[in-house]
Amino acid sequence: MSIEVFPFELEDKSAGAGIIPPDEHDRRYLAESAQVAKDMLSRSGRFTVINVPVSDAQPGAPHGLRNCGGCEGQIAKGHGAALALLGVVTRINRTEHTMFIRILDAETGKPVSEGFTDLRMGPNYAWPRSVKWLMTNRILQ
């Protein structure tokens, strides 16, 4: 099945969220997280990842796709994908996070698979490892 993996989003709930904006490291590890998901989906042999150039990506909700009620499904459908994957990292503090990944059917908008980890360990460089755990233990089962 074809799937579009959207850029992973950061929801910063830490005490410093209002004064410390996301930095180059956060952006790097969010991008690496999305790439880990793409690689694992491709290697599973069950999915064909649709690569959409950034210039063709449609803006979602003003506060991220995580807040648009599943609009990523319609965006993926518009790009020719059957499924849409969205990942959200929630920063608890600078050394703890949780992660949520969901795959929606682009036609119906209904969840096909989803997983949540509250491992709550590791700063931003651990985000790609959380993706690997979720993909292995929840999404690709």
Quick synopsis:
With 141 residues, this protein is an alpha/beta fold.
Question: What descriptive keywords fit this protein?
Answer:
141 residues, alpha/beta, globular, 6 strands, single chain, six-stranded mixed β-sheet
Description:
- The protein contains three helices and six strands, in the order ββαβαβββα.
- It is α/β, with parallel strands linked by helices and about 140 residues long.
- A hairpin with a 5-residue loop joins β5 and β6.
- The two termini are about 15 Å apart.
- About 30% of the residues are buried.
Any chance you could write out the topology, listing elements then pairs?
Elements lengths: L1 E4 L3 E4 L11 H21 L3 E3 L20 H8 L4 E11 L2 E10 L5 E7 L9 H13 L2
Helix pairs in contact: 1-3
